[in-house]
Amino acid sequence: VGWICLAAGLLLTGSSLAGEYAAYALLTAPGSLPNGDAAAWLSNWTWLPAFTLIGVYLVLLFPDGRLLSRRWRPIAWVAGAGTGAAITFFAFFPGRLVSIPYATNPFGLESAAAVLEALSSGFFLVPLCMLAAGTSLILRFRRSRGEERQQLKWFASAGALAGSAYFLQTAFSLATGFIENPTAGGRVVQDVAVLTFYALPAAAGIAILKYRLYDIDVIINRTLVYGALSAALAVVYGMGVVGIGGALRSVTGGEGGNLAVAGSTLVVAALFRPLRDRIQGFIDRRFYRSKYDAATMLERFSTSLRDEVDLDSLTGELLAVVRQTMSPAHASVWLQTRPVRIGPDEVAVTRSSEAVAP
Fold first, then answer.
1. pTM of the prediction?
2. Hey, CA dihedral for 115, 119, 120, 121, is it positive or negative?
3. What are the angstrom distances between the C-alpha of 77 and each of 3, 56, 129, 225, 255?
4. How far apart are CA 41 and CA 100, in angstroms?
5. d(CA 260, CA 281)
């Protein structure tokens, strides 16, 4: 799921960047930048796989990264084939670019126009696959229970909105011939449909942050620790290079740059482990207090085990630790009280006239 979101974001960003470059090179300041047509061509089709990833594959695989069942595999294959056919049509159909009508396709294939026209039907398979993926999401939501249901609630609503908008936009394109003859009104409808797709990653973000999906606390913790650690080590390294280098230059008369770098590297390597532990401890105390308190309590309990000999006291301490660290609905300790076979060199510790431990 994470890789799908990253790939879709990269494709959409690249498409937008190429589109703005093309607009400046071809409209705002014609001839000021090279390869404006190539940028327009790239922007013309790179958005297609992004919306298939979000509208079909993300919906099919959210939240656990697996299909609901094997029966949904054909939907994934058809969506991929339809997207591939649509990309081929958008990328090589001769004449004006479908998504950017002010530019002419520099890679258009006049000789294959009829075949490319047939491949354009793949564009209309994608919204059908989106509807099927939405059905899968509805079924997954109906079967879900507890926290998984809460995770899916926002995402299912966003999926229904995006799927309906894209299906209506596709129906509008078919009815008005928008693919062959783009109009201003058709572009407004298309832009509105596109905007609804941003609700999907937003809903996924809510599920991740609000309902602790994918152990997001661990990711945030590691980001805070290693971000602060990297910044601290960078400062130490820079100060070391400047300080050691300055000291060596005053002694050697301008030499010693390599020694300063080597010395700073050794200092950073030596500081890595202790500095990481200190930063981890500070962040746990400041932002993850329950985790820090639990670790402290377990450490104290481990220490007390060495000195505690009373079984009742030990049982009480164990239950207290379990309740405070794990917060279970119920906790109890069961001890085996049947006689234990002992050897000639072993001593039986008895309680209520029964051997409980060798």
1. 0.57
2. positive
3. 18, 11, 10, 41, 64
4. 8
5. 31
Please list, in sequence order, all residues whose beta carbon lies within 8 angstroms of the beta carbon of residue 336, skipping any fewer than 6 positions away.
356
Determine the length of the chain.
358
What are the structure tokens assigned to 78, written together? 């058809």
Distance CA 145, CA 148 (A): 6
* CA–CA gap between residue 30 and residue 189 (Å, rounded): 29
Bridge partners, 104 (sequence order): 96
What is residue 104's DSSP assignment? B
Alpha helices in 144-288 (DSSP H): 146-176, 184-197, 199-210, 216-252, 257-287
- What does the alpha-carbon distance between residue 62 and residue 217 come to, in Å, rounded to a whole number? 19
Token readout for 152 is 């899916």
What does each of the 358 residues of the chain score in pLDDT, given as a tens digit? 778 888 988 998 999 899 999 999 888 888 888 888 999 999 999 989 998 998 899 889 887 788 888 889 999 999 999 999 999 998 898 888 877 878 888 888 888 888 888 888 888 888 888 888 888 888 888 887 777 777 777 777 787 777 777 777 777 777 776 666 666 777 777 778 878 877 877 887 777 777 665 555 666 677 778 888 888 888 888 887 777 777 766 766 656 567 777 777 888 888 888 888 888 878 777 666 555 556 666 666 676 666 666 666 777 777 776 766 666 666 776 666 665 555 555 555 555 444 444 4
**In this structure, how many other beta carbons lie within 10 angstroms of the beta carbon of residue 93?**
25
> Pick from 124, 103, 123: which is nearest to 42 by CA?
103
User: In the chain, where are the structural domains located?
Assistant: 2-211, 218-283, 292-357
- Return contacts of 190-193, CB within 8 angstroms, 24+ apart: 192/165, 193/165, 193/166, 193/168, 193/169
What is the distance between the alpha carbons of residues 91 and 23, in angstroms, rounded to a whole number?
18
The residue assigned the tokens 């971000």 is 227
